[in-house]
Amino acid sequence: MNGIGTSSVVIVNDNVAGNNSTIEAGTMDLVHSNEIVPTVACHPDYSEVPKRYASFTNWSSEASPTIDEFVRAGFFYTGSKNIVTCFYCGGSLQNWGVNDNPMVEHTRCFSNCGYAKKLCGDELYRTIQESNRTLQELKREAAKNASNLRENSLTLQIPDEATLSRLVAARLDLPVSQRLLDQNFKLSVIKRCWEDQLRLKRNDFVSDSDLFVACLILQNQIEYINGKKENIKIPSIEIRKIHEIQQQQRSGNSDTSSSAAASSNSSDVEMVDISSSSTFRKTTEASVPKIIQEADSINTSSTNQVPQPKPPLDPTIPNACIVCHREEKRLACIPCGHLVTCTSCGNSIRSCPICRREIEAFVRIYI
């Protein structure tokens, strides 16, 4: 007996012949993976026992179970070969043997059929399913062993270096090896490629082009290294070095940015463009000569004095002088326009503390 399928009588084992009550492991996996648990009869016309009996009128298979066993197991005859179908789950089976049990085979091949499960009972149902799983595991293991055996039969048996040398010598006489010699490949390179291939793969190159590529890579490596150990580049180590250099560069840039930001914050300078600010207004032109005169009277020797430490910033002054931090800024530098100092400290600077541009004059700003 062999399984077919569900619903529309899809024959799973149509190519299987003979009185064989087993199904291939792959076939059973296909059936089980596509199972649909029926909740109503797929063929309600054959729900009644007399109608299932009537379907076997033209049944002619002698080497098979009895019609009573088929009908009791829920099957009706489809009229084709010896294919029978369950009225409830729609699963179909064929290739019956005289020793097959329709109820057991029904439960084994279509485990989700509610009629078959109820018919055989819980204990027998569990026994059948466990036996079926064991059988399929044995079949899968046998198929795996057969596949491994085929793969092993294709690999070369190289028990020692003497055998390897003999096999390599034979392959150096092949036309493909001679052609590589004609293309100016060294004999040592071709020999090394054959040795590595047979030692690691236990098999020949798949094609002549594979041997050519292997020889080309090996010869280029030898020419690049040129007998010098320092020329050997290991990709993983080289990549790690590149990452370390990039990390150091990022760390250096980060430190530079932090220092610049700290210097900017400590000066607490507010950059103001006088020409574009609407919150400030210039003094009259009459006050400009006076400020210029005050700037010219600054003692130049003061620039050579040792700078005194700046007093601490007074947090109560919102716009403190950049020099003394005690009074509000009142003087804007000309021509840059930066508002930097109070009136008292204007005489102590010659260039703008912000842009370092030379100060030509000051403009008093009233806020």
UniProtKB/TrEMBL annotation:
Molecular functions per Gene Ontology: cysteine-type endopeptidase inhibitor activity involved in apoptotic process; ubiquitin protein ligase activity; zinc ion binding
Keywords assigned: Coiled coil, Metal-binding, Zinc, Zinc-finger
GO biological process per UniProt: negative regulation of apoptotic process; positive regulation of protein ubiquitination; regulation of cell cycle
SMART domains for this protein: BIR
Family per similarity comment: Belongs to the IAP family.
All residue ranges annotated as the RING-type domain in the record: 321-356
Keyword Amino-acid biosynthesis: no
Keyword Cytoplasm belongs to the record: no
Protein name in the entry: RING-type domain-containing protein
InterPro entries associated with the record: BIR_rpt (IPR001370), IAP (IPR050784), Znf_RING (IPR001841), Znf_RING/FYVE/PHD (IPR013083)
SUPFAM superfamilies in the cross-refs: Inhibitor of apoptosis (IAP) repeat (SSF57924)
Species of provenance: Rotaria sordida
Stretches for region Disordered: 245-270
